[in-house]
């Protein structure tokens, strides 16, 4: 009797263990099955490391990549292929940001109930959020220069455009030398961090709005240079007397360096952190490069320059777009995604800025367009923007232009950086206009 009882107990224990492991497996399969199925060693899904079936489309259904009879091919149009290389991926698999790697399960047609249900058929369809017209416009506007272009929907978080240069045609890849330093495989919008220059003044301005009660009553004066911490901060010219709105529109280094010293390094670091500019942000399962904000000594020249976006400051373009999206969104900024309609069931947003601060920043950015950048240069766009011309050593400065447009049908925020291009407003501003025109067609 005793023995039978013991056996029954042992059997129950084994049964419980099997049930537990099955439950664990089912849960893990539901959560991670797409990734397992999309793992390149899965022979049902991949042939020689290439996806066996499936199609990748842009937001309007234009084909960016398709597998037919086991052969994968990129878009028919050469410019589309080059402009979307970092978005889709290359044949050799060197580009880690590509959809062929990061969304393999969806391209193959994986779903948690049926698994790889169409392994003999056409595979799945991955609908990306990007607009191929905007991709082409961005690539053409960069005109061979290196840089990053990203446009996001500040309501849904969908990425509308993501272009990295240099690039190449994935159907005709060039020989790339082992010692190549161009970073051709790097997806700059997600994986680069650049000196921001004056676009960082938006961060300093946000901190000033929230911490200096009399900011909008103050009179500022610029004689072209200012003594700070035993050194000199300079402007391109003497800006004269001005209010804070003009100081931003004219991008006065003297004013912003003085504000940075008054606010203090810890305060600026806190704001850069709160705005997500020094940490890694997420785009689906990918992570962006982190930016950097080093605090110069209290009262020092370095602290002054860091508040004007120089010194050791670095920002990532996607994180910058997410930050300006918060200005457009009254402090709310949605999580970024490359999947079309992924957010239709609900958008996950982060609240990173007080609504009143966002509104004030937005007004001043609109004023900067009217006063400095010229609304005529952005026909038909209700634009709010800030330029940056970031000194990066001996070469020409990096040109930045960031902001957003007020347009209920196209609620888009953007960040454009053109490396060694010169003036932010004229060089990166032109690229931003070309891309926004294509996005709003
Ligand atoms: Zn000045």
List the helices and strands and how they pair.
Elements: H1 2-37, E1 46-47, E2 50-51, E3 54-57, E4 63-68, E5 71-74, H2 78-83, H3 85-88, H4 99-102, H5 104-108, E6 110-111, E7 115-116, E8 125-127, H6 132-142, E9 147-153, E10 159-165, H7 188-191, H8 201-211, E11 220-222, E12 225-228, E13 231-234, E14 240-242, H9 244-249, H10 253-263, H11 265-274, E15 282-283, E16 286-287, H12 301-307, H13 317-328, E17 332-334, E18 349-351, H14 355-373, E19 383-390, E20 398-405, E21 412-418, H15 424-439
Parallel strand pairs: 3-8
Antiparallel strand pairs: 1-2, 3-4, 4-5, 6-7, 9-10, 9-21, 11-14, 12-13, 15-16, 17-18, 19-20, 20-21
Helix pairs in contact: 6-15, 8-10, 8-11, 8-14, 10-12
The structure holds zinc ion.
